[in-house]
Amino acid sequence: MVSLRCKMIVKESLIRLGLQISNIELGFVEIFEDITNQERDKLKEILLKSGMLLLSKEESLLIKNTKNLIVEMVHYADKIDLIDYPTFFSQKLGQEYGYLSKIFAEIKGCDIEHYIALQKIERIKELILYDELNLKEIAEKLNYKGVSQLSKQFKSITGLTPTYFKKLKHIKKQIASHYL
Questions:
Q1: CATH 3.40.50.300 fits 59-176, yes or no
Q2: Rounded-to-integer distance, Cα 117 and Cα 134, Å
């Protein structure tokens, strides 16, 4: 559930099935009684028609742990000895990469590699804004083969080159100082 509307749909679906809600928050529902497999299947079907998925606690925790691991991996890329993504995630999360990748893509709407790329781009933006490292150092820190690979991925995701992104920071500062 990512919105109040989703929360309302879930609540109505549970009430329609005659289930007593203990707690409902965005992304989480707790009910008083255990539900049967038939009730779970019916709820899954109702939610799917509304564009939502029903996750078990285990699946939800697995997605959360995967996202946390990706953020950690990106922020500490220079300290992690990364053999390859499938092996890394399987070892860290104790799950087959195929299963993990399938669940992740269903829930997040993109595969793990794309999510990693998005997180790396956010990290690159941070590092550019800190202005402590040049692009070559950022590329090394985030395990790119070079500045050209970093720049190509940055542009494909943001539509901007890293150099132009850095210039935008300076332009914004000039505009802000002009109005002070």
A1: no
A2: 19
